[in-house]
Each structure stands twice: as structure tokens, then as C-alpha cells.
Amino acid sequence: MTRAEPSDITPLPSPEDARRLQAGTHDDPFAVLGRHGDCVAAFHPGIASLEICIGQAVHPLARHPEAPDLFVGVVPENGPYRFRATDGAGQSWEFDDPYRFGPVLGEIDEFLLGEGTHRRLWHVLGAHVRTREGAEGTHFAVWAPNARRVSVVGPFNGWDGRRHPMRRRGATGVWEIFLPGIAEGEVYKYEILGAEGQVLPLKADPVGFGSEHPPATASVVREIAGYGWHDGDWMAGRAGRNARSAPISIYEVHLGSWRRRIEEGNRPLSYREAAEELVDYAHDMGFTHLEFLPLSEHPFDGSWGYQPVGLFAPTIRHGPPHEFRDLIDAAHRKGLGVILDWVPAHFPTDAHGLGRFDGTALYEHADPREGFHHDWQTLIYNFGRVEVANFLFSNALYWLEEFHVDGLRVDAVASMLYRDYSRKDGEWIPNIHDGRENLEAIAMLQRMNSLAYGEVPGILTVAEESTSFPGVSQPVDAGGLGFGYKWNMGWMNDTLDYFGRAPVHRKYHHHQLTFGLLYAFSENFVLPISHDEVVHGKGSMLSKMPGTDWEKFANLRAYYGFMWGHPGKKLLFMGQEFAQRAEWNHAGQLDWGVLGAEWHAGVQRLVRDLNALYRATPALHLKDCEAEGFRWIEANAAEISVYAWLRLGAPGDPPVAVICNLTPVERTGVRLGLPQAGRWREVLNTDASAYGGGNRGNLGGVLALDRPHHGLPASAELTLPPLSVLYLMPDGV
């Protein structure tokens, strides 16, 4: 190896360039650093000396007279080179120069990024482990169009933003750099110099694939490629499992509080533990889908994930990204779909997040009348900015494609649709037509749904939308928002209000259970008894029910019987399936101990049996979203609080008669019409002793005679147990 003597450096970086690099204010570091002709420049604070190694030659670099941490030298040899640094103790090490590598992003990427049409944003932005010109490292790219300078910082450079300033990519506003030697698991953030020259709080990566454990807030380099899926059969057939005609019964879960390891510091389950325990439980209970409260990275546990900062990062609270894939893969192999709650409606103001990301209102609106939610103290995305809309719809595709998620439930859609949502006069700005609809949010949701259904076969999307906005679950080309399903919030409010009343008063509120059928088929509805109904002082499902303990359990069993017999897909939040007594607490686990009591175990058995019957019986699910699948038998018996209806499937499918007695009085000799004569068996009775009931009813079935009633050709006399729901089907089918 030959060592050259130090020489006069020609040409030196200009004094101005040198001073700006030393101060960390240079906005075009690649124009100065790296190799330019025969001159090499490198900025490395805190070292005693720096040499260039190229082939067998070693060239010492000299300090620039205007910048003590800027080293420069002449290197006449061509080819790749490496640096050798020595510290004050005489220790030396070699490393690659990030500024010898060319751009990674191509012209097509630049064009699509600038246009806001890059459907797979995560392929180009974020941190990607890769090999460049024989060097292993990580490519970083971030959108910050109004920044003067953006740097990658982390433990690898002492969090010094002067060390690794990035390359600006033209008019796109994207900055990028390839850092050799940075591997999976490395912690990083972005240091951004704002448009006014101010250093902003360090920012996590908006497209980062991993994060530190809270309360730490840095991003973590995660390799998300190369997972070995084992769910091919599920993926090939899932379209039928998500269809309007399919039985869909959803178990909504907050993963942090389903179960905890009390003996290990009360920690939540890992993704891999949930892949066994939760998946097995939901499968045993007969649910068809798991729905997770948001699992995108979020700083505050008390937000339950609904204030996400890392939209592309599965929360590290339960493990790294591949272990989240293990959970989804296990669910699919058990025949369970996975739905994720997705939150494009708002984001928190945490300093490391998206708020004023490059020193300006970038992701959000500058005007708080458009860009701030008073209800949640959060920021609102600027849906009309093409890059922001691109960020959101690309994120939706990311979860569906990279993690094989089967569906997205979109949170707080109503807050997106209306500019005056939860605002007083003067606190909002009308749209261009002087109306209240948020046209930009509507367009983003339509685009998201069109892409999701168009690009990822077999998935579903669900809107949590609490108003009468038309066409939420209608196709975009028919003028709708394009969701597959909509939560039926009106049904939920009416039915919970009814069942919360003392039975003696129910006859005055009879319509609350019939009104929902006036609009039950205007959308593709999910009947949601979600986490929102068991928090913030609302109590548990059991505590909502009136009466003695026996009556509370009977009422709850009747409510579930009513719900599973009603048109619409089903959703229960965890703990509701066994009548947890306490209100949900996100910081602890469910009260599994109550299953030692027979009444609680009975409710659990009922939900399991309801799911099994619902899934096995076409009449109960095939036409959940079609008026042809429903016919009233008795809708007007308000004095005795009795309801009865038929559920109907395809021609040839046996019908199901659902009969409800919602008073604590046993009714005998109640004649109800039926579509055919012959024996009808009780396929389910919520008063059965197995469920904790009194085992009253019709001794397993009734005989229908050719005696027309309720406009049907046959009828039967029934005994209706108190606070109960019966399901009857023709015998022999």
C-alpha cells in the first residue's frame, strides 16, 4: 500500500460552502461533498485525521481552512474509495462515503411523487435496507418540500444534523440519501432546517416501517421484504368470505388489553402470543373476522391507537413487523379474516409527528378552521393537497398488500365528510359551492376505495359513519363513497336505548326496534356493539341492562338473540361475549375470571352458538343486505313487547322465524303466522339452561297448522319465555 504526501488542494470548496457545511445550513451537500473531479471533500466532526483508501493507495486529507471539520484532498486514482478515520486515542476504522453514491429514485418515481399519483409510496419513501455498488446500507427518502436542509440523524452520527444532510430531488420536495453501514434495527430521525432557517424538533419518519418503544419516539429501520406467507388458500378464497352474501361476525379487539401477562409486569401479549391464544379463541367462538383497534404506531396508550403518528409502522408494543405478519398468517390459516381500524381523519400534534413537518402546515391545513379538531385536539389532513391524499391512499394499499390485511374499517368518517363537524358558526369555512361537505375528503375516500377494491382482490372496507350521508356503501361509479359496508350507528343507538329501559316502559318505545327496518337495506350495514359503547362512564353491556342480576343476563341474552336474527353483519367488542361486568379498561386485561360463574359462561356459550347458527344457515346471512331476505310476522304487538319476523335465503333455503318476548312475563298461546305447515323446531332459545336461562319454551318445537295468520298460510301457538328470543326452522332441514 502506498501513502501519498499531502498536497495543495485544488480546487478547494469555496469558503462559503465550507462555512455553510460547518454550520449545518448547506442545502446542496452533494454539490460539495464526495468526489468532484480529483477533489474529495468529507465532513466529519470529532476525528483526529482522515484518509482515503483507493486500491493500494492511501491519501491523507487536510482540514479546510474555513471549516475545521471539513476534510479535503486530491485523489487522482479512479474507482470506489473508502475513508479511514483515526480518533484522538489512535483508534482507526474504515467506512464508505455516502456522498460517493448517486441518486436512488428514478425519473418515473419523481414524476409520480410530484403528481401525487404514486400508488405505492412506501416503495420509494421511508428507510429501505439495500446494497448499492457493493456497499450494504439503507436508503432514506422523505418529503419535506419547504425545508432548507434535511438530515438523517441517529446514534450512528451522534444525532448531529451536519453529518448526513440529504440530496434534494428537484421540484418533488423529496430528499434522499444512501447511508452505507446502516442496517436493520438502527434508530433514526430527521433533522429539518425550516424555511426560515430554524432547526425544527426532530421528526420521526412519516413512512417509517418501525418505531422505538414508547415513550421513545424515533423511527427504526425495519426490513419488511421477504416474509414467507402460508395463507395462499385463504387469499385465493377470501372474496367469498367478505361478500355481502357471506356470514360476517366480527370480534373487535384492543390487543393491548385482551389478555396480559400479569406475572410479567402486566405486559400485553406479543403478536406471536396473540397468533396462538387470540386466534384460537376467536376461532373457537365462531367469529369470522378479527378487527383490531388501530395498530399503527402511536405515542399515547390512552388514545387506543386512534391518534397515530407512524401510519406505516405496526406498533412495536407487541413486536416487529414480521411478527405482526405472523399473527395475520395464523388467523388466515384458522379461517379468520383480519380487519384493521384505519385513521385518516386526524393526527396528533406531538412534536415528532407530522404537524408542521417541514416548518410549514404541510400535511395539515394552516387555518385552524379547516385543520384542527377541537373534540380530539388533533390536526386534520389537507385532503385537497395531492401529495397528502397520495400519502393516505397509498397507506391503505400498504396494509392490504404488505400485511395481507383483509379489510380496513375507517374511523370517524362523519368528521371527514363535513367541514362544520362539531363546529359552531364562524368556526368553519364553506366549500367552493358555499356548502358544508368536504369535497376534498370525499374525493380522497372515493379514490382510496377505488384503488383498494381495484388493486387488491377480495378485500373489504367499512365506514364508521354516523350521519345520513347518502351512498356510503355504494360504488364510486354510482356516485357513492365506495365502501363495502357501513356501521349502522342508528340501529345501535336505538336498540341500546330500548334494551336499557325497564320492560314496563318498553311498550311506549316499541318503534325503536322496528324503525331500523325502514332503512336497513339502504346501505350494506354492520351492526356494531363496539368499544365506544363500554367506555367513558357508559358501563359494560351487562350494566346497561335493567333489573335484577337474573333480568340483566336475560336481557343481554335476548339482545344478542335479537341482534343475530336482525339483518346486517355482526360486530361485538371483546368482553361483551361473556358479559364482562366492568367497563373496559385499556390498561388492564379483560375480566376472564368471571367465566367461573355459570351466567357469564352461559352468555359465552350463547354467542358461540349464535355464530355457529348464523354461519351454517343461509337464511340468516345470505340476504343480510337485501330487503328480500326479511319479512315481518308481527311488528305491532307493542302492548306485550313481542316481535317476530322471517329471515329468508335463496329459493330452496329453509326460512328462519325469529320471535322476541322482551318483557319478564312468560307468554303462552301466542299465535304467529308461519310460511308452511308442519313441525318447526327450536334451533335456538336464549332462555335455555345451557345459557343460564330457565329452560322454558316449546319442548324443542311447535306444530304449525294450515291456518292462515299474519298474511302467511300457516300458524302455530307458541310459549314465549320471559326476556327471550327463539329461532324456529322447519323440521327435517
UniProtKB/TrEMBL annotation:
EC number assigned by the record: 2.4.1.18
Pathway where this protein functions: Glycan biosynthesis; glycogen biosynthesis
Domain of life: Bacteria
Catalytic activity field: Transfers a segment of a (1->4)-alpha-D-glucan chain to a primary hydroxy group in a similar glucan chain
UniProt domain Glycosyl hydrolase family 13 catalytic: residue ranges: 252-621
Chain segments carrying region Disordered: 1-21
Any one GO BP annotation for this protein: glycogen biosynthetic process
Transmembrane segments: none
SMART domains tied to this protein: Aamy
Record keywords, A-Z: Carbohydrate metabolism, Glycogen biosynthesis, Glycogen metabolism, Glycosyltransferase, Transferase
Gene Ontology MF: a single term: 1,4-alpha-glucan branching enzyme activity
Catalytic machinery residues: 411 (nucleophile), 464 (proton donor)
Gene Ontology cellular-component annotations: cytosol
Entries under InterPro entries matching the protein: A-amylase/branching_C (IPR006048), Branching_enzy (IPR037439), GH (IPR017853), GH13_cat_dom (IPR006047), GlgB (IPR006407), GlgB_N (IPR054169), GlgB_N_E_set_prok (IPR044143), Glyco_hydro_13_N (IPR004193)
Subunit and partners: Monomer.
Function description: Catalyzes the formation of the alpha-1,6-glucosidic linkages in glycogen by scission of a 1,4-alpha-linked oligosaccharide from growing alpha-1,4-glucan chains and the subsequent attachment of the oligosaccharide to the alpha-1,6 position.
Family of the protein in this entry: Belongs to the glycosyl hydrolase 13 family. GlgB subfamily.
Protein name: 1,4-alpha-glucan branching enzyme GlgB
